[in-house]
Amino acid sequence: MAMAPPDSSQETLRSRGLRLAWFIVVWDIIEGAVDVTAGVLAGSIALVAFGLDSAIEVFAALVVIGQLHGRTSYGTALKLIAVSFFVLAIVMVPNPGLLHLLRIHAASNLDQA
């Protein structure tokens, strides 16, 4: 059974969604690079982690782009994005406990004054 072509309002919304998703990809790549660089220079694991989180956001936006192009179903897109957030949780959750066990603590800015 052939599908009817999308009407102009659907195509307009899809086009707008694609532009927004590509904007998110570009923004998050820049944000991630800046945050990771600043985190490394400042010795801030939190800032590095915040920058790496941008990779998850880029992945999610790319999944949305695939869905808007008709390459990925809605269910598959949700599963891919969910897996990416579980990976982020697996990476991030143990870090505070590990740092505590190793007795690595952030220095206060007041200590440097």
Automatic annotation (TrEMBL):
Presence of keyword Transmembrane helix: yes
Membrane-topology descriptor: Multi-pass membrane protein
Keyword tags: Membrane, Transmembrane, Transmembrane helix
Subcellular localization(s) per the UniProt record: Membrane
Predominant subcellular localization, coarse grouping: membrane
Annotated transmembrane regions: 20-39, 45-65, 77-94
Family matches, as SUPFAM superfamilies: Cation efflux protein transmembrane domain-like (SSF161111)
Highest taxon in the source lineage: Bacteria
Protein's name according to its UniProt entry: Uncharacterized protein
Organism lineage string: Bacteria, Bacillati, Actinomycetota, Actinomycetes, Propionibacteriales
